[in-house]
Amino acid sequence: MTWDVKLTKNTAKQIRKLPDDIKTRLHFLVQEISQLGPVRNNRLNYGKIRGTKDRHHCHLKKGAPTYVVVWRVIDKENKLVEVLYAGTHEKAFYGRFR
User: Which residues of 7-17 are buried (b: 16+ CB within 10 A; e: fewer)?
Assistant: First the structure.
């Protein structure tokens, strides 16, 4: 059974502003989460966000600028994940996701 991955309205707006190659990487990450689940240990700088429950992040591209994605598990039983942020590391504020 696959996971359902939703985007917040704000995240959908953020994605439209991303470079095409980053959009492609994000698409593959979303497909991977959908097929394999929210824990993506195979990803660059993947990790659970400290001090939170069921919130994760990983880098789509390192260097300058670094692009990151933040997502959370909404419902483990029904396998629902929500992408909260997609954009540059500099603009990501991990504290608001706690």
Answer: beeebeebbee
pLDDT tens digit sequence for 55-68: 999 999 988 899 99
Total domains present in the chain: 1
For residue 21, the enclosing domain spans: 4-97
pTM of the full predicted structure? 0.89
Task: Tell me the CATH number at 56.
Answer: 3.30.2310.20
The alpha carbon of residue 75 and the mean position of all alpha carbons in its chain are separated, in whole angstroms, by: 16
C-alpha–C-alpha distance, residues 58 and 32, integer Å: 13
Give, for 78, the enclosing helix (H) or strand (E). Answer: none
Confidence of residue 13 (pLDDT cuts 50, 70, 90): very high
